[in-house]
Amino acid sequence: MMQKEFCRIISQTEIAEDIFELSVKGELVSQINAPGQFVHIRVTDRWGPLLRRPISISSFNKATKQLTMIYRKEGQGTALLAKMVPGMELDILGPLGNGFPIEEVSSGETALLVGGGIGVPPLYELSKQLAAKGCNVIHVLGFQTKSTVFYEQEFLKNGETYVATVDGTYAAKGFVTDVVDRLRFDCIFACGPTPMLKALEQHYSDKKMFLSLEERMGCGIGACFACVCKKADDPLGVSYKKVCSDGPVFRAGEVVI
Amino acid sequence: MMQKEFCRIISQTEIAEDIFELSVKGELVSQINAPGQFVHIRVTDRWGPLLRRPISISSFNKATKQLTMIYRKEGQGTALLAKMVPGMELDILGPLGNGFPIEEVSSGETALLVGGGIGVPPLYELSKQLAAKGCNVIHVLGFQTKSTVFYEQEFLKNGETYVATVDGTYAAKGFVTDVVDRLRFDCIFACGPTPMLKALEQHYSDKKMFLSLEERMGCGIGACFACVCKKADDPLGVSYKKVCSDGPVFRAGEVVI
Amino acid sequence: MSRLNVELPGLNLKNPIMPASGCFGFGREYSQFYDLSVLGAIMIKATTVEPRFGNPTPRVAETDAGMLNAIGLQNPGLEKVIAKELPWLSQFDVPIIANVAGSLEEDYVAVASEISKAANVHALELNISCPNVKTGGIAFGTIPEVAKQLTRKVKEVSEVPVYVKLSPNVTNIVEMAKAVEEGGADGLTMINTIVGMRLDLKTGRPILANRTGGLSGPAIKPVAIRMIYEVSQAVSLPIIGMGGVQSAEDVVEYFYAGASAVAVGTANFVDPFVCPTIIEELPPILEKLGFEHISECKGRSWKQHEPFAHYRA
Amino acid sequence: MSRLNVELPGLNLKNPIMPASGCFGFGREYSQFYDLSVLGAIMIKATTVEPRFGNPTPRVAETDAGMLNAIGLQNPGLEKVIAKELPWLSQFDVPIIANVAGSLEEDYVAVASEISKAANVHALELNISCPNVKTGGIAFGTIPEVAKQLTRKVKEVSEVPVYVKLSPNVTNIVEMAKAVEEGGADGLTMINTIVGMRLDLKTGRPILANRTGGLSGPAIKPVAIRMIYEVSQAVSLPIIGMGGVQSAEDVVEYFYAGASAVAVGTANFVDPFVCPTIIEELPPILEKLGFEHISECKGRSWKQHEPFAHYRA
Ligand SMILES: Cc1cc2nc3c(=O)[nH]c(=O)nc-3n(C[C@H](O)[C@H](O)[C@H](O)COP(=O)(O)OP(=O)(O)OC[C@H]3O[C@@H](n4cnc5c(N)ncnc54)[C@H](O)[C@@H]3O)c2cc1C
Ligand SMILES: Cc1cc2nc3c(=O)[nH]c(=O)nc-3n(C[C@H](O)[C@H](O)[C@H](O)COP(=O)(O)OP(=O)(O)OC[C@H]3O[C@@H](n4cnc5c(N)ncnc54)[C@H](O)[C@@H]3O)c2cc1C
Ligand SMILES: Cc1cc2nc3c(=O)[nH]c(=O)nc-3n(C[C@H](O)[C@H](O)[C@H](O)COP(=O)(O)O)c2cc1C
Ligand SMILES: Cc1cc2nc3c(=O)[nH]c(=O)nc-3n(C[C@H](O)[C@H](O)[C@H](O)COP(=O)(O)O)c2cc1C
Ligand code: FES
Ligand code: FES
């Protein structure tokens, strides 16, 4: 069950250029049921900006009631968020949506986790849970440039980790898809820019695959129809899924991306 | 010359119920040339609320470059202001307007200072300056109720001080005008609600009198014509004065209030 | 004793607060947060004869103190609303106002005649003002004669009172209100969104796939207040007001302007509890302002107040 | 090399940023803050034949991300503007756009023919859209034929190009734009304020003495952008855009929509340095976005972009 709660900020750190790691404590952590769910954050108690911001849960701990997010300072909402300090309260709605189905990979099988930019964060909790249940986890993480790379060490603890930067300033030069070609795996979990997800869907249509989508949101809970996508089996029709409440994670081929 | 400056907050104290005393430090203090001038404050770096708030300067010290304001927490702007703490910077435009002409009272003469509610603050610097130059200063200060009375002790240092509360919970019950009737003086300086100013203007039309007016403002500097009042010698015509730049202090009888 | 109950054509409301159409779906999502029976009424998402997918995404864009939406009337269609959504809503003790939309007159008539038969639908809201559909629509909301004609046709078939939802995107809103009054409307709801646009700094292109969208939220409140102020003096229909309502104080301002009830749209996205919060905060605010009942606030911006009331009539 | 110079009928602008009419008086106050010669142009306060006092106070009220004003065209009258204000302004190296207002056609014609003779007046802005005056006015801004006729009359007498300022309070802004184009307008300025109202919680009465006022500020920006987007595709007149501009990014968004220059109104009250700040911040933003000159931004929201440009014409 989702809740609306004022959660206390435990820590906030800039872990790469304009990339912030933010941890909060709240009862709603007990409601999280899968990696890949997200929260909807109100960054001000006034109307500027008006709407909540959707941010993935990058890791959580039910014992300490803490959850961590990693976000990029982009526009006005995340800029305000970045100014907040430990001790302050944050108005959070969540957990929202349906996360990655870890039950789809059995112990001993290999899961490939592909993340691009701020699509990387939700993969972290997924990686931890998959590793804990005995799966082999391979990570391919793409970033724009060296200064925005984050969490490479953290992912390494759970398995092989390949990093690519678009400009080649760190590790391999190019896109994550270039790296993936060389790897063997049973199932893909991916989150990142739409072109990346599309490329994966096309090239590995034979593989079991779960993709986390992004869409501009209003309510975040399924009421406003802002975030719909077409179902793949009815591309010209009226069937749809809502990214916020049916997703953000979908099985590849389920919806049109 | 007015300036726009980020002034550092030195102190902020709630000195009576919802009444705050706020001191800031800035170069613009050197530009203040009379008691009764005001500043125009931007309470946020965003657009909620949009407009600046006009607040009187209640005292200042050119040596320390500090000025003090006293304001009532009213609506959204002053509510935000009340949350600010020492060390923060405040976007201030000022000093604005023309203050009280202390040269109108000679040493030895008696000045009567009449203030109502949040009209009291600008009288404080006036009182200090008049006392310093050897005038007798009598204060009549009106408040709604006991919990909102402030600065009685401060005014007492400069001269006789009578307080009235509308509900009679402190000192005399009634309006300041009731008290004024009993006093003798050469010149009146007043700031407060319009009905109070009107009553004074009517009853003491034989006296030298200076009134500080309030009006909703846009620019605060004379450009937008939001704050005009008619000149008394041309009540149906097009002559006008701007409260922000010609006032806020006017000689009684100069403008229609 | 309640300070909040309100009687309107077809609607016996325990309080005058209701979610606005399109901002509350069919109530399912918000029922996870609170018991929908606390609401005065629920304005459900626009219903069309056939299911509609609506516009491509992105469908929302934020603006200063507001947002643009171009959902495009996505809904599951009349049949499913009647078979699934309305029965589900009937578990709550709350009257439903069904928002009726379409492209052609026949569409409106078809939806109205069917949906008005549902037991928990106590009134219709004729959506002649959606800025986000290409065909039809626009004329219904901007040409008085066309609006009047449509209202008349829908009145003929509806089994419950009909409220017409006015568009603010017109030169003369009073003219529109008078036309639908002549067409037989039982009430008005106003305002729908104002047409607006935002462009992406990086691409230069509109953020919304539909390019334009409807502006809602606090930004439009002063426009809504002005229009309700004008219309409430010109017609004798009750008005359900909306546009940027976020707080109990806003509700009082709408009543002052001339509204008889108030709908809350965008604010639900910001705070899912906004409706019950307003309902809770209204009585103490009325108390503080000296009103025994919310109805005393109505039209205060233009009515002669006590003690001058006896000078009139 | 300047990235900012812009050529418009009658106006050779070093940059496309100018204070909007009514938000800058005749420049005297802001000249205390900076050298007015840095501005692209100055749109001075509306001028009428006779001096006007305007409306009673309160004349302004704040709203969420906006403000209402009902100044009522207060100004010292044609004679004094020509004798005092324009000569004073001539000390600055900046073209003046004179805002012309009135109640009757004759008034506009009288002001236009005189004020257009002043050496530093390089263009007129015909204010057919002030929401705050009772007589006349309204028809000029909302009836295409009337607007066209007025434009024609003013064009006959004006010695400088005439820009017509459009009101957003209409059902169809494109129709209005086309009408004034037919009337011979050299350009458009848009938008003027949207009619709105705020009520006082304690008294229930309108905060503005005039009751209604014009809404300006960030709240109306999406409406202005939408209207400029529509109008710039429908007419071939250059547009000076305005409504809620606060930053260099906003200026770029206005150009994308189809504006050729941008005026800044309400933001001057918030930050007296807003115009020079925007002028300073524009070049680095253009640099970052990859534009060599601001004119490249123009109409990008609807024009085919490079590398597709050669597919057209
Ligand atoms: C399910 C989901 C999970 C996400 N998880 C993360 C995460 O873990 N870390 C992270 O950095 N970002 C994440 N994002 C993207 C994040 O929501 C946007 O970066 C953020 O909303 C931008 O807000 P802003 O105020 O900085 O930008 P602004 O430009 O001021 O935002 C304006 C409006 O556009 C919306 N918007 C802008 N960019 C996006 C976007 N990419 N997706 C959806 N809405 C957008 C905003 O929410 C807001 O309503 C996620 C998005 C979704 C949908
Ligand atoms: C020259 C001058 C000097 C003033 N000095 C003081 C002072 O020393 N101490 C003090 O407490 N107050 C003073 N005021 C009044 C003070 O400006 C208002 O109380 C304040 O602006 C209210 O802002 P808000 O955000 O709390 O209220 P809101 O209701 O949110 O304000 C909404 C809008 O109305 C304007 N407004 C509301 N009340 C007033 C008012 N009484 N006068 C002018 N504008 C108003 C605000 O500035 C704002 O634009 C002075 C006003 C003027 C004109
Ligand atoms: C996302 C969204 C969807 C909407 N859908 C509808 C709709 O289906 N039918 C309708 O009549 N109005 C619709 N509206 C308009 C609202 O009902 C309301 O009139 C408008 O948003 C103003 O109120 P607000 O500012 O409180 O949101 C929609 C508004 C939004 C924001
Ligand atoms: C206080 C005030 C006075 C105005 N006076 C005039 C005027 O005299 N003539 C005119 O054409 N527009 C006038 N306007 C409208 C502005 O020029 C501008 O079109 C509008 O405010 C939108 O821009 P903004 O949001 O940047 O303020 C006035 C606006 C304000 C806020
Ligand atoms: S954001 Fe409202 S339905 Fe998904
Ligand atoms: S507030 Fe603008 S002229 Fe006084």
Automatic annotation (TrEMBL), chains A, B:
Question: Which pathway does UniProt place it in?
Answer: Pyrimidine metabolism; UMP biosynthesis via de novo pathway; orotate from (S)-dihydroorotate (NAD(+) route): step 1/1
For the keyword Repeat, the answer is: no
Query: Which CDD domains would you find in this protein's record?
Result: DHOD_e_trans
Does the keyword field hold Iron? yes
- Give the binding site residues for FAD: R53, P54, I55, S56, I70, Y71, R72, G77, T78
Domain FAD-binding FR-type span(s) in chain numbering: 2-102
Among InterPro entries, the record links this protein to:
Cyt_c3_hydrogenase_gsu, Dihydroorotate_DH_ele_sf, Dihydroorotate_DH_Fe-S-bd, Dihydroorotate_DHASE_ETsu, FAD-bd_FR_type, FNR_nucleotide-bd, PyrK_electron_transfer, Riboflavin_synthase-like_b-brl
Q: Which ranges of the sequence are coiled-coil?
A: none
Which residues does the record give as [2Fe-2S] cluster binding sites?
Answer: C219, C224, C227, C244
Pfam family membership, one: DHODB_Fe-S_bind
Q: Which Gene3D superfamilies match?
A: Dihydroorotate dehydrogenase, electron transfer subunit, Nucleotide-binding domain of ferredoxin-NADP reductase (FNR) module, Translation factors
As to how many cofactors bind and how, the note says: Binds 1 [2Fe-2S] cluster per subunit. Binds 1 FAD per subunit.
> Please, one GO biological process term?
'de novo' UMP biosynthetic process
Needed co-factor(s): [2Fe-2S] cluster; FAD
Q: Which PROSITE patterns match?
A: FAD_FR
Quaternary structure, from the entry:
Heterotetramer of 2 PyrK and 2 PyrD type B subunits.
Q: Which family does it belong to?
A: Belongs to the PyrK family.
Say what the protein does: Responsible for channeling the electrons from the oxidation of dihydroorotate from the FMN redox center in the PyrD type B subunit to the ultimate electron acceptor NAD(+).
| Family matches, as HAMAP family | DHODB_Fe_S_bind (MF_01211)
* Name recorded for this polypeptide: Dihydroorotate dehydrogenase B (NAD(+)), electron transfer subunit
Q: Which organism is it from?
A: Neobacillus novalis
Highest classification ranks of the organism: Bacteria, Bacillati, Bacillota, Bacilli, Bacillales
TrEMBL record, chains C, D:
Q: Which gene encodes it?
A: pyrD
Record-level GO cellular component terms: cytoplasm
Q: Where in the cell is it found?
A: Cytoplasm
- Which reaction(s) does its UniProt entry say it catalyses? (S)-dihydroorotate + A = orotate + AH2; (S)-dihydroorotate + NAD(+) = orotate + NADH + H(+)
Q: Could you tell me the keywords of this UniProt record?
A: Cytoplasm, Flavoprotein, FMN, NAD, Oxidoreductase, Pyrimidine biosynthesis
GO biological process: what's one of them?
'de novo' pyrimidine nucleobase biosynthetic process
- Cite the record's note on assembly: Heterotetramer of 2 PyrK and 2 PyrD type B subunits.
Q: Which family does it belong to?
A: Belongs to the dihydroorotate dehydrogenase family. Type 1 subfamily.
Domain (Dihydroorotate dehydrogenase catalytic): residue spans on this chain: 4-286
> What is the protein name stated in its UniProt record?
Dihydroorotate dehydrogenase
UniProt remark on cofactor binding: Binds 1 FMN per subunit.
Pathway where this protein functions: Pyrimidine metabolism; UMP biosynthesis via de novo pathway; orotate from (S)-dihydroorotate (NAD(+) route): step 1/1
Q: Which residues form a coiled coil?
A: none
Q: Which cofactor does it need?
A: FMN
Catalytic residues (UniProt): C130
Where do the annotations place FMN binding? Answer: S21, K45, A46, N99, N127, K165, I191, G217, G243, G244, G265, T266
Q: What does this protein do?
A: Catalyzes the conversion of dihydroorotate to orotate with NAD(+) as electron acceptor.
Q: Which residues are substrate-binding?
A: K45, N69, A70, I71, G72, L73, N127, N192, T193
Record-listed E.C. numbers: 1.3.-.-
| GO MF entries | dihydroorotate dehydrogenase (NAD+) activity
